[in-house]
Structures are given as C-alpha cells and as structure tokens.
C-alpha cells in the first residue's frame, strides 16, 4: 500500500522527480508538516463581507468573529497536532484533473440516488453535534436548508434538537447518526424514535470508542452551554454535560459511550431496526470487507474530520483502497475536507457515490443561519456542476478514474526514473 511509506518519504520521492512539475502539486510537498498550522489556532482568510462570499471556506473567519471562543474552537479544532486536519485538505490539492474537451455540456444532470432515495446532487450534510451553539435555530435551520436543496441531512446523536423536533420542520430525507451508549436500552429507544420520526438510515459512527484528544477543548474546559442540552437524551437524564477538569465532552464520552463496541453489535443493531446501516469511519480495506460481511448497507470513509486519531491519512487518500475492497457490493461515501466542487468531482472519480460536508455547514450556520447553510450547498453544487462541464461530463456516470491523476498514479510511473 502506498501509504505504508512514511508520508515525508513519499513527498521526498515525489519532489525529487522531474515528473512532478505542477506548481500546485509542489505547493503541497514543500511545506513541512511541522510548520503547518491547525484550524483552531491557524491563520484564516480575511473575513469576506457577507454579500461578498464566493466560496464555502469564507464562512469560517466570520464564524470565528461571531462565536464565543469555546464554541468556535469546538467546531474548528481537531485531534492533537491536527496533522490529519491539514492533510484532509492538502491531499485534495495533490489530485489533478485530466479533463476531456469538445463534449456538448449544455445540459448537465447531477441528480443521484442514495440507498434508493433520489436526491438533487451527490453532496450531503454530515452529522455535526450541538448546532445551537452556532445559531439559535441550530439543527432546524440545517434541516430546512438541506431539504430545500433536495439533499440529505444527517442528524447527530448529540444534536441540540431532538429527532422529533427536526422531523417537525417539514419533509426531507434524513439520516440519523448513532453513538452507541453503554446502556443498550437507551440505544434501542433512540433508534426506534428516529425510525418513527421518519429517518431513513442509521449512520453508525465506529471511530469513537473514546474521544480524540482535542487540545483546544481541553484548554477551554469545553462544556455544552447550560441553556442547551443534548435533546435526544433529555428525557433519559443524559442530556447535560458536566464541567470537567479537561474537556467536558471527553468525560461524557468516557462515562456513557460503549468502548466494547464491535462487529457483533453491527449485527445486533440489525435486530432492532430495519433501517439500512451505514458504517461511518472505515478507512481500510480490511474493515471494508468486514463491513460487507456484517451486513452494512454502505460505508462512509471518514476520519471524523480529523478529530479522533491524528496521523491517519486524508480520507481522499484512503478512498480508493476502500472502493476496491468493496467490489461494488455496497456504496462508498466520503467525508473530510470537502470544500470545493472540484473536491466532490475528485471523490466521485475515485469511486465515491457521494460526499458529506461537516464544518462548512456549522460555520455558515454561525454566520448566517439557514441562509448560510443554503448558500454552502448552493456554492458546492454550482462549483461541482462547473467542474463537470469543464471536464466534459454531463452525468455522474460520465465521471471516470481517468478524469484524475493521483499521487499513487505518479508513483507507479516513477521507478525507472529513480
Ligand atoms: C463532527 N463529526 C461528528 N461525527 C459523528 O459521527 N457524530 C457527531 O456528533 C459529530 N460531531 C461533529 C462536530 C463537529 C463540530 C465536527 C467538525 C465534526 C464528524 C463529521 O460527521 C464529519 O465526519 C466531518 O466533519 C467531516 O469533515 P469536514 O467536512 O468537517 O472536514
């Protein structure tokens, strides 16, 4: 596997090759990991005025200005050195296009279907917890914006609005993200409630037996503000988070989340619900095969937005390995670092059936509520459609592996030159 090499070795090999003369590509290699700065403390683009926003990343600086430090840091930060956080973005920038020309692109269709549900585009909303810290409308605003855009919203277990409240915002195709609590009665009840509230699938998060070490939250002694609660657990006396000596969320997870979770529980989940189960957090071929064997309906290649284990590869670097191991037996989705329509195209070219966006949604929510989330979805949609046009693709099925060139492609042609 190509990333069994230490990453810097890979960069050195590639940087020494005359094959890699793209300035964009070199930009990704020449920056040593140690000098890269994480999102919580790192430099941001100057905030655009609200009417001047031209890409989804510009909401981050506005969110930083608007939000209390504890809330902003919770949304922006990631685990430890935040190496994977940077890498989730940089790995996209090392994938280049091989566009086709002189193809009639006057009509472009980006509709698709996910688990049998027809949606307007292969761009969906990832589960992000506690959205009412970003905006008073929180998950309601996100649900309305996703529904208006004709796409899927995934609601976090740790939402500050309940499954019933989100369902009451109106029609929409929604998935429910599940954290498995030690108390399985709690899990059973919650899954049943989600099912009754019309949620169409369970996204089972499997990368969080313990919470990753998010140093910004530790420094801030992060805790959910007292006027909010984890609404899905309110009636169960698990809706509040106590102040702790470090991160209140890390302590909550240590107290409530089941560290024994294993593949047999994926089977168990299928006995308590008929909803399809997406396994969220797979990044290896080995686990892909186990997901297939254990009845998953799909896989989300995710490193939790780099908030769990630092120094895992970018999701876009892990995608192909998973797609190959899945052998078309289930759909493979991706999240992590998707900020441009070009990123969406790259993920689809490498075999993803669709992508999910996390942070841009919360930053836009903080900046402009529902209108902000709508604008994020619109900008990604428009950029993606333009990328299709400029690559000579009129339907998602036209996007092929030959439309992109990756690091591993370049490595394959290198040995004779070493
Ligand atoms: C998350 N993520 C997450 N995942 C999950 O399964 N349950 C959750 O409650 C949360 N909460 C959460 C909060 C915040 C603030 C962030 C940034 C992320 C992970 C999320 O679903 C997704 O995997 C990443 O956010 C995708 O990466 P990007 O788009 O943020 O780079």
Automatic annotation (TrEMBL):
Keyword Flavoprotein attached: yes
List of residues binding glyoxylate: 74, 179, 214, 304, 307
InterPro entries according to UniProt: Aldolase_TIM (IPR013785), Alpha-hydoxy_acid_DH_FMN (IPR012133), FMN-dep_DH (IPR000262), FMN_HAD (IPR037396), FMN_hydac_DH_AS (IPR008259)
Subcellular location: Peroxisome
GO molecular function: (S)-2-hydroxy-acid oxidase activity; FMN binding
Recorded metabolic or biological pathway in which this protein acts: Photosynthesis; photorespiration; glycine from 2-phosphoglycolate: step 2/3
Pfam families (UniProt xref): FMN_dh
Record keywords: Flavoprotein, FMN, Glycolate pathway, Oxidoreductase, Peroxisome, Photorespiration
Reactions listed under catalytic activity: glycolate + O2 = glyoxylate + H2O2
Top enzyme class: oxidoreductase
Catalytic residues, chain numbering: 304 (proton acceptor)
Residues the record lists as binding FMN: 127-129, 156, 177, 205, 280, 302, 335-339, 358-359
BP-aspect Gene Ontology terms: oxidative photosynthetic carbon pathway
Domain spans labelled FMN hydroxy acid dehydrogenase: 48-409
Domain of life: Eukaryota
Gene3D superfamilies from the UniProt entry: Aldolase class I (3.20.20.70)
Cofactor(s) of this protein: FMN
Keyword Oxidoreductase applies: yes
EC number: 1.1.3.15
CC annotations in GO: peroxisome
Family of the protein in this entry: Belongs to the FMN-dependent alpha-hydroxy acid dehydrogenase family.
Name the record gives this protein: (S)-2-hydroxy-acid oxidase
